[in-house]
């Protein structure tokens, strides 16, 4: 694990907590916030390959980007720094971080450029002028913490996973799910192709579940697979602040971006959120999260920068649901995060609650300052099956650990 150290401390003073932060999510009476673990998706990036989709999917060349495929964009980094500054104010207001001084914050990132650079951008916002170390493997070297199935670091039965996906699809299976989003596929093809033409777009390819492969995650084929990718590309174009003449070649509106996000969220609902797949995907992240919450003398804040798959899997494992303005329900936004807050009572008993925090898509697009009048989206996510101190959805530390510690076959 590499520790990348940022610039040495220039100042030891953090700005006072903002009114926006102070108003967010009050801590229940008798409890104190004393530790937080953040599981966050990286910031805005371009498509991960060039060209981003096979020839013929669109009738025009795809827009260009200022960085290499899959890298964090400068705009994406600026948005992450902004939300980190809000997080800092939120935690200062809650008494978790000091008003002055460089607080202890642990930063962990996957080994992709976009996750490493997101962690750096976050450090600039959470601790401006302070030194910070980021734990990560060498760039490009696969890290099984974030992809244990792909790296064969966990026992994984492909047939069991396929069955879980089909169960999640419900009546009519994959074809039924495609039929229910047919109007969205038609609108997406209109953006991709202008006027309908044979061989252009994604909607004319029947959706299915690819044959199971040993030790491999389930994968969609056909329209739903390609539609998820295309919808995400349009979202990233919009979120990066591209002129609307370039977003979907001028054919897409903000309303289209939000509606089509349902195609991206559907892929996660089917492939990442089913409990069997989610447990396996989180088999190495869950122990890291539990240690950060429960271990002695841990940093008050642990930030883990991963991918939308990791965030979606955690949502599925714990049955958590959110809706960021500008996106579909349960779609992990760029820079969006699940926060696990440890709350402690006067006797030292620990509890855990979950929060989703994200800028809205328009806040990312315009780099809107996160002020008292324009705070980010923050929502308490009640954890099903938990109830403590008369609060539905609040877990005891023991109950929370049990939910994260079960094996992939439970």
* Backbone shape: globular
Strand content: 5-15%
Mind telling me the C-alpha Rg? Answer: 21 Å
For the biggest sheet, the summary is:
9 strands, mixed
What is the helix tally?
13
Number of domains: 2
Number of strands: 13
CATH first level of the largest domain: Alpha Beta
Summarize the amount of helix as a percent range: 25-40%
Give the low-pLDDT segments: 3-22
Distance between the termini: 31 Å
Average pLDDT, all residues: 92
Output the CATH topology of the largest domain.
Rossmann fold
CATH architecture of the largest domain: 3-Layer(aba) Sandwich
The CATH homologous superfamily name of the largest domain equals Phosphoglycerate mutase-like
